[in-house]
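Morning!

This is the sequence you dropped in the shared folder:
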Amino acid sequence: MTVPVIEVKGLKKQYGSLEAVRGVDFKIEPGEVVSILGPNGAGKTTTVEMLEGYLKPSEGFISVFGEDPFKAKAAFKKKIGIVLQESGAEPFMKVREILNQRSRYYDEKIEVDDLLGNVGLTHKANSRIAKLSGGERRRLDVALALIGKPDLIYLDEPTTGFDPSARHASWDIFKKLRTEGRTILLTTHYMDEAENLSDRVIVMSKGKVIANGSPQNIGNQEGYLTWISFTASQCIDLPFEIEEENGRFSFKSKEVVKDLNRLTTIALELNLDLIDLEVKRPSLEDVFLELINEDGKY
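The structure's back. Tokens below.
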């Protein structure tokens, strides 16, 4: 049985009367890529900062590689790479210079030339950081996090503000890290990013975990309905609540196979074509919004 890279039980963080994190529990296994999703104020950043050892919990248990990150020593910290929202790298240094400088902090390290190639910055090795584009800066941030061969990487909203091309280029880097077996914890506001990169997503709201599962399975949870839609020349009398717009009929289904059988049986009896019949499973974004809205009712 593998030992989790991260294990959290009953984690809480309180600032006076404000409960930023309210009893969070989860595990992350070796080699997993996990995204933490949630609206602003959900407790994502506070949770990750406790995992990184920047903040001390008010209550609860944290284990990262079997240690309390708040009390961990230098040897532990060398196992971890962190890509912050802003790196603060010295703007007038050159790319190769800053990588050479940071590499001296580690006994085990990736050769700078290899690392430049891995993140696609070989052609910018002698450029000043201030002259890099936003996407190139983010590649440098990743390189700085990887220089010491970390086993665990924290990515804090790594593509915020990127154009689509830069975002997809960054995804390629993160996917490569995944194939190397590194454990990655990602916070993001982009549902497509979480869906593309993650083995599992953890949804937080109001300081607690409200869902935990794969991007695919979390959308199939009971209560999150699938849309069935079709175009027809007339409305069909169905035992569902039908919505109609410009001859396009839609309804939500909990039991897709049974409801499709009912629909097609009635259509055959009426000799009616179901044009452009479509079954649309809820996207991760659909489910996320439903979870957040549902949580907001309590």
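Headline: Residues 225-281 form one domain.

More detail when I'm at my desk.
O.
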